[in-house]
């Protein structure tokens, strides 16, 4: 049952709204003025608050502005006997879901409340989903190398600094990029990922910058590239060490000027993108070998985060295994399996050349192939 708060200094209005809304099946609380309403909002979570604008002590707009700081999930419907445009605009700017005039049209009011409740549900579902995604992208470990990675993420996330993430395959570079994005100011916008190693060199420029119709054989229509798709958000260039020199030159220009040009076009398009990149290569050596532009390296490496191989953080392996056992059990809709201590010690001793990705695959294999308790014999058979 949805819970609503009516905030109005007129007792008759509160009583009339209560009768109507309780008949519709809503749970109703009342407040006599903005000050009382604000206190109730701070103590109780409401789906919707119906607030008069003109009230003593604290008017509706002032209450709305203060309440938005603490009542994140509540949708506000403002009510006023003076249905002027200024009030409606001010209410919307302050974060109100809608604005209705007194006396309210009953059908319109009920539709507005239903829509506001639906918005509240969607926002809560979005928050829950984000928490689940954040948990999936959580960097697990308490070793010194991982602690340094986490500290750096927390420092740079709220900035606009470009980040270069280095480390071997399977170590979790993509997870670092996602954590930075999710903790940063652009988290509400898109994170667009490009695996530079997976795209043929002749197509990488089209992939990044888009192309115009007829730009090359097979370009039957205009295509928007990854830079434009990430406008306002974050672009993650994975395995950038595999990018062609010609594409590197265009990426450099985009970073310098915040502009791109589609393949086959001549129009400059402004983009507002935070760029992060990752590589398993030694880019300084690639520069010496003539495979990577030094000026692009310096543009990308404002902050460098090195993700260590799993062999350098063996104390984190039990924590990672516990997380994988929980995650895999959730995916399969089953209870988490247990691992014996000697099986855990054996897993800690393995070389893990595929790093965290390999460890996760092994744990999933053990969950599928073994009984409720995974022992040393199981690990030797399937790891």
UniProtKB/TrEMBL annotation:
InterPro entries given in the database record? AAA+_ATPase (IPR003593), AAA_lid_NorR (IPR058031), CheY-like_superfamily (IPR011006), P-loop_NTPase (IPR027417), Sig_transdc_resp-reg_receiver (IPR001789), Sigma_54_int (IPR002078), Sigma_54_int_dom_ATP-bd_2 (IPR025943)
Is Phosphoprotein among the key words of this record?
yes
> Known Pfam families for this protein?
AAA_lid_14 (PF25601), Response_reg (PF00072), Sigma54_activat (PF00158)
What SMART domains does the annotation carry? AAA (SM00382), REC (SM00448)
- What are the protein's UniProt keywords? ATP-binding, Nucleotide-binding, Phosphoprotein
Q: Where is the signal peptide?
A: none
Query: What does the entry give for GO biological process?
Result: phosphorelay signal transduction system; regulation of DNA-templated transcription
Q: Name one GO molecular function term.
A: ATP binding
Q: Which residues carry this modification: 4-aspartylphosphate?
A: 52
Please list the residue ranges annotated as the Sigma-54 factor interaction domain.
Answer: 139-368
UniProt cross-references to PROSITE patterns, sorted A to Z: RESPONSE_REGULATORY, SIGMA54_INTERACT_2, SIGMA54_INTERACT_4
Domain Response regulatory span(s) in chain numbering: 3-117
Superkingdom in the source lineage: Bacteria
According to UniProt, the name of this protein is: Sigma-54-dependent Fis family transcriptional regulator
Source species:
Spirosoma rhododendri
Q: Write the lineage as a comma-separated list.
A: Bacteria, Pseudomonadati, Bacteroidota, Cytophagia, Cytophagales
